Amino acid sequence: MAPEPGVYGAPERTVKLSTSPAERLPSPTGTRGETVVLGAGPGVECPRTLAQGAGAASGGALGGLVSVLGIVAIVQGVLALAFAYGAWTLKPWAWTLGIVAFGISLVLAVLGMINGDFSGQIISAVIAVAILYYLFTPPVKAAFGRPA
User: Which residue range(s) make up the domain with 95?
Assistant: First the structure.
């Protein structure tokens, strides 16, 4: 008598019921793990960005300009979080969103350094440059469906 499937000694059969679009896309080795690291950028930056934006939007010495920069910082934080989701799921739109979000982050960091907050903004600038560099590498562009 042959053993029933799933009982010790019998060959196991696995059936994959569905695949997500991200599983069907070609991805470079380690893309998921690196996305976790990239997701830490928005995860670390966003609360600080939102706090700075809220503080700047309340007014200050420069008035309207500071309020505009505060609103831009809030928008950048939201875009960075949306990028983290899109990068994790390898959505094609996430590549463009990442370029925009971290381009804005880099500009805000440089403006912060010009304003005198060098030590606080250098970390943001380094994170933004690293993510932008990574997004332009050929395997990552290919994973998001961009021509390498």
Answer: 21-143
Residue 13 and residue 23: Cα distance in Å, rounded?
A: 21
Q: Contact, 89 vs 24, CB < 8 A?
A: no
Q: How many domains does the chain have?
A: 1
Nearest residue to 123 (alpha-carbon basis) of 50, 44, 35: 44
**What is the Cα Rg of the chain in Å?**
21
* 3-class DSSP string for 6-47: CCCCCCCCCCCCCCCHHHHCCCCCCHHHHHHHHHHHHHHHHH
Q: What is the pLDDT of residues 9-52, one digit of tens each?
A: 555 555 454 455 445 445 555 555 555 445 545 555 555 554 55
Q: pTM surpassing 0.70? A: no
Let me know if residue 15 belongs to a domain: no
Cα separation, 121 vs 112, whole angstroms: 6
Q: Are 71 and 102 in contact (CB under 8 A)?
A: no
**Per-residue pLDDT band at 57 (split at 50, 70, 90):** very low
**Nearest CA to 144 among 89, 91, 79, 85?**
91
